Amino acid sequence: MSDLESNLAKLAPVLERLRAAPILHRIGGEDRAASNGATFENRSPVDESLIGLVARGTAEDIDAAAKAAKAAFPAWRDVSAEARKKILHKIADGIVARADEIAVAECWDTGQAFKWMSKAALRGAENFRFFADKAPAARDGQSLPSATLMNITTRVPIGPVGVITPWNTPFMLSTWKIAPALAAGCTVVHKPAEFSPVTARILMDIAEEAGLPPGVWNLVNGMGEEAGKALTEHPDIKAIAFVGETRTGSMIMAQGAPTLKRVHFELGGKNPVIVFDDADLERALDAAVLMIYSLNGERCTSSSRLLVQDTIAETFTAKLAARANAIRVGHPLDPKTEVGPLIDRVHLEKVCSYFDKAQAEGATIAAGGTRVEGPGYFVRPTLFTGARNDMAIAQEEIFGPVLTAIAFRTEAEALAIANDVAYGLTGYIWTNDITRALRLSNALDAGMIWVNSENVRHLPTPFGGMKSSGIGRDGGDWSFEFYMEQKMIGLAIGQHAIPRLGA
Ligand code: NAD
Known about the structure:
By secondary structure, the chain is an alpha/beta fold. It is about 40% helix and about 20% strand. It is globular and about 80 Å long.
């Protein structure tokens, strides 16, 4: 049996289950159809076949889920940190036990290649373990004494929260958002992306099997403008953790304004990888190729703009084009595949529209620039050269395996180009001049910067972006800052003078 066949065999029982019955909501520990019985079709981007039906959440469903989360909150808040830690570790164990199933289901649902998704479940489990271990310290505070008062701080969970996730790496992102919320003592209503609902339900089942009490975590599927919108507007939901497009972030902010929602946004990016001629060019090439073509380029931290020094631009982009042409595009369940299909037809058409735009704007297609014929939403890894930063291909998030290369002469020019976009998520700098690396890191508009490295996530570090790339940070204690409220308690040390009115 080939590796592809063995993965297809692992997928078969999952598909059988999904074809037999729709994915339902999970509210207060119970399966629920949509209040009006509505469902929507979920199709695979690999061959456009039907995966199954999914309950299409209504405002009523969101209301039921928010009420369940509200009812479960006091008890979950008051669960001892040690017990909370144990449950979160058990969820991680459950994820590991079902890692193969999660990997193949994620590939089929999203088109992401098994090469990357094979580790998605394990990374998700790591997120749970990391926040499980941090749970006992979540409420810790400071002592800030003054002359008259012993001032102490502590944190309490904010309450029921809404988590809204996108389709690009749905499993990993769901764990990343939900694990810290539960560790902080919040209860959750999760609305996964309509294009990739499969693993969110597996994750939910794992959590309840691990002993998470009913109602602590609720799942409502459906459309963004329906279920998503209702979640952001619900008065019982105290905060919204959102990962998705910048435009959707703006909408959520407006929708949440009447109920003063606290928001955390992880949005789009148009991230520069800046390559100077003194860098280790082989490593820079490996990293640039990895960071745009892995995960189908559907990656918020992708280095979608290559800023390359003019002295090496021609040779560097020629090598890059050769690597792009050699990338294996194919069935996502074949472990040798490096790029799978894009998520859906609309997204495929959006990505392909930039091939014409690039030519109309005067850039050159140095690799790719075509879709792959046949069923499924496949495109060839693409490189545009000879671009200027004012072109749409240099300014807009394409969110596919498409790289725009721009040559620069000086460090100042590289910095100006790098910062001249609406986004500010990540930046990658390749140089062996340490002073230049520090100068640039200081001046780059980006929430995360890697020098002589690809994106390597370390969970205690802050993750998030500036400008149109987001508000707030994930990771380490930053996640707790979002999911918790600070409290200050001032205790009089003695009998300080209290101003007397009307005495
Ligand atoms: P999207 O904004 O279209 O959808 C994300 C989620 O929001 C989905 O669950 C959707 O149903 C929901 N939604 C849509 N409209 C809504 C509304 N009015 N109210 C409430 N919810 C609504 O994003 P997408 O296309 O699924 O994901 C791709 C985007 O996500 C890209 O822009 C990418 O850069 C971004 N992303 C960012 C990060 C990060 O950490 N910065 C990580 C991954 C993805």
